[in-house]
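Following up on my earlier thread - several people asked me to post the actual chain instead of describing it. Fair enough. Here it is, all 347 residues.
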Amino acid sequence: MNFVRNRHSLIWALLGLWFGTVFLFWQYYQLQDGKGFASAAAKTANSVVNIYTLSNQSSPFANNTQSTITNLGSGVIISKDGYLLTNHHVIQGASEVIVSLNDQRQTQAKFIGTDPATDLAVLKISLEGLTPIKLGNSEQLNVGDQILAIGNPFGIGQTVTAGIISAKGRDSIGLNTYENFLQTDAAINPGNSGGALVDLSGRLVGISSAIYSSSGGSQGIGFATPVNDAMEIMRAIIKDGSVTRGYLGIQVQENNAQVAKALGLTTDEGLLVTAVTPHGPAAEADIRAGDILTSIEKQTNLSAHSAQRLVSNLTPGERVTITGIRGTQSYITKAKVERLPAMQAVR
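Reply from S.P.:
Thanks for posting it. Predicted structure:
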């Protein structure tokens, strides 16, 4: 009898110890999460700036020109010598750009260049004691990773919101010509554009770009340009003043069993050409709407998005080999890549 009683007491003691340990670990990780948010915010606060743009507007009642604030946004200090990343739409049409730092300093920014196709722009400021943000690696992000969004929503001042990476590689959203967005549920509102998306180590992983909203406010769906893409664009703008992309002059969609059956195609693989720009590189190579492309530069199993990226990375002037099918006949042709015209589809 005593043995049974002692065994029950031991079991209850072990259960109590187990629950106590679990509770302590839960408290510890809750505390660590809070510290992670606070630490990341503190590390990056001085690297994120507020941006105010001015435009010259003529009065219809007087022969004078007035400068008015037309836009509010955010930006990120990338280097000690003052290069900033922001969104193209934040500074579009501005006659003057004012950058306000977290330490209350303000200065006029120099316009370096812009890339409307990815909605990115590069500015430069000349101030001492700047705090460049540490760069992360957006390729190493996973869906579910915790992040912070830091920016200037509605022009009220620097604000930090928390969330997770909801999805990666979002395209066909219709916001930019060239899309490869990170999606997040961190609250992003007007004015956050051009601000920082950072991980819990305080490293930049994205540039906040847009929200998906029917009301104009945050609804838990925000988009950011991955930092790896943003830095590639920034380096090109600093070097050349703009971004050079390849262009073939075609529009494609992914083929599948349903499309092939509906259109009576001979295969359900490859990319279906839906439009060809007259006198463009593809047209000159005798590629036609209705053709099925099975490879570009020996790259097969292409999605519409990966084909877009492949073509945009080609060098204008180079000749690329394209394999296709027209009806029941396969063909191989070569197209001379041209430079992407301003604000055209990146294909």
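The chain has a mean pLDDT of 83. That should answer part of your original question.
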